[in-house]
Structures are given as structure tokens and as C-alpha cells.
Design brief:
131 residues, alpha+beta, 5 strands, globular
Length: 131
């Protein structure tokens, strides 16, 4: 089966809400992802297989030099096939094409090998305030 990746691809809110619920372990919500990403994001990448959304990543930005990886999701049934890696590769390529100078990501400790070893991110000092 072939997975297709599309920058700023069309998606159904129900599909992304289901994928987000599966990925982050909560009940499906009724968020309007389409309006949110169109209003606030540089772009996003959709991964589809046989017409089904199997992966997604949101690329937020500051409108200039900094882009940010948010909400990377891969369906449980599609994991360990390189889909997450390709989502990041497309996001990186498109952020570079938009003349962003930096692509940021934050993540839980268990994802360090994915982001550093597989996707090529470098460690950097950062700060965080829990709100």
C-alpha cells in the first residue's frame, strides 16, 4: 500500500479529531482543525493511505524565521513504517522553502531517538513554564 504525503492537504475534521484522540489517548473532540491550521499555521502535512488519514503534522510559525512542529500523529495501524519520519521531512522541506531559518520541536523524553537520531534535530537549551 502506498502512502501519499501532501503539504497543506485537505482533511476532514472528524478524521483528524479521531487521529488526535488515538495519538494522545483522549476521547474524540469536535475541534475545528481546518479553521485552526488555516488561521495559525505555516502549513501541515497529511499522510493518506487508500483515502484514509494515517498521519498528520502541524507546522505553526511566527510569520518569519521560526517554525514549530506540533501535533505529529500517526495512526496505530500505520506505525513503524517511516510515516512519521516522512511527515517531518516534508515539513522541514516546506518550512525551508518558506524561508524559515529554524524548525523547533519539543517532545517527551521517550521520543528523543526519533527526533534526534531519525529526523536530524539537534539538542538545544530551552525553557518552559507550565500554565
Amino acid at each position: 500500500m502506498t502512502v501519499t504525503y501532501e503539504w497543506r492537504g485537505h482533511f476532514d475534521n472528524a478524521a483528524i479529531n479521531a487521529l488526535h484522540a488515538e495519538g494522545f489517548g483522549h476521547a474524540p473532540l469536535k475541534d475545528d482543525w481546518w479553521a485552526q491550521v488555516n488561521r495559525h499555521s505555516l502549513g501541515w502535512v497529511c499522510a493518506t493511505e487508500n483515502g484514509e488519514l494515517v498521519g498528520f503534522v502541524n507546522v505553526a510559525w511566527d510569520g518569519a524565521a521560526h517554525a514549530f512542529i506540533l501535533d505529529i500523529l500517526v495512526a496505530d495501524s500505520a506505525r513503524h513504517r517511516g510515516i512519521g519520519t516522512e511527515l517531518i521531512a516534508v515539513a522541514t522541506r516546506e518550512a525551508r522553502a518558506a524561508r524559515c531559518e529554524w524548525l523547533h520541536v519539543d517532545f517527551d523524553e521517550d521520543l528523543k531517538p526519533f527526533y534526534f537520531d531519525t529526523c536530524g534535530f539537534e539538542p538545544t537549551p530551552a525553557g518552559l513554564i507550565a500554565l
